[in-house]
Design goal:
52% of the residues lie in helices and 19% in strands. It has four helices and eight strands, in the order H-H-H-H-E-E-E-E-E-E-E-E. The strands form two sheets. A five-stranded mixed β-sheet has the order 1-8-7-3-4, with no helix packed on it. The chain has a three-stranded antiparallel β-sheet with strand order 2-6-5, with no helix packed on it. A hairpin with a 4-residue loop joins strand 5 and strand 6. Helix 2 runs antiparallel to helix 3. The longest helix has 41 residues. The protein is elongated, with a radius of gyration of 33 Å. This is SbsA Ig-like domain-containing protein.
């Protein structure tokens, strides 16, 4: 009985050593797998999220100025994506001059696009200011207010004569939001019914009040114009 105990102790020690060795061997494998996962810069899921984010920028924009701001947001998202790729390529490929030059060119292109958007914003602000000042100064016939309007409402404005091609212009049919910013709408003319349709490019915001403005400059084919401009407020349900 006294001889059996040392044998049992040795077996237990051997088992413990084997277990320790197995654990020591397993741990580095797990660490390597974790490190590999951390090095993946852009997964398919992440790339899809980036694409959805880019698509949503335009969808959320409810004015022309908002659309331009959406372009800034898109460029910021693209720059973040390029940053990720730049870091990844440096880790994987080292400071390869051909790749670094390509990234530099991309950053230059991004800056040029930003400058273009900035210039467009300045032009838009100037144009919107001219339009809003004209609307405020012009004598208007008030058609009152309408409540509980559908968010995708298409306004149909019928005339008693054919309109000239110049009359069917977005500057003659304008929708403003509560901040007097121009809201993008699609303007179309039906010669048969002699009516102009105004459809929102994006659904109107629930609970907000908008102003539909029709300029006095509208003329028929015979050169007959409106006596005065027209405006109407409408609130979305």
């Amino acid at each position: 009985e006294e001889q059996e105990e040392p044998v049992t102790d040795e077996e237990e020690e051997q088992e413990e050593l084997v277990t320790d060795e197995e654990e020591e061997q397993e741990e580095p494998v797990i660490d390597e797998e974790e490190e590999e996962e951390e090095e993946v810069v852009v997964t398919d899921e992440k790339e899809q999220e980036e694409e959805e984010e880019l698509e949503n920028y335009d969808a959320k924009a409810d004015s022309f100025s908002g659309k331009l701001q959406a372009q800034h947001n898109k460029l910021d998202a693209v720059e973040r994506y390029i940053d990720h790729l730049s870091v990844w390529s440096e880790k994987r490929l080292g400071l390869n001059h051909s790749y670094t030059d390509q990234f530099k060119e991309l950053y230059v292109d991004l800056e040029e696009l930003r400058q273009t958007v900035n210039e467009m914003e300045e032009k838009l602000k100037k144009k919107e200011k001219e339009v809003t000042e004209r609307v405020k100064e012009e004598v208007k016939e008030d058609f009152g207010s309408k409540e509980n309007i559908n968010s995708d409402k298409v306004w149909n404005i019928q005339f008693n004569a054919d309109l000239s091609a110049q009359a069917v212009d977005q500057l003659n049919f304008i929708v403003f939001d509560e901040e007097m910013k121009v809201v993008p709408v699609q303007v179309s003319y039906d010669e048969v019914s002699q009516s102009v349709s105004l459809a929102p490019e994006k659904s109107y915001n629930s609970g907000e009040t908008y102003t539909l403005f029709i300029a006095k400059d509208i003329t028929s084919e015979q050169g007959i114009g409106l006596k005065q401009a027209v405006q109407m407020n409408f609130t979305i349900e």
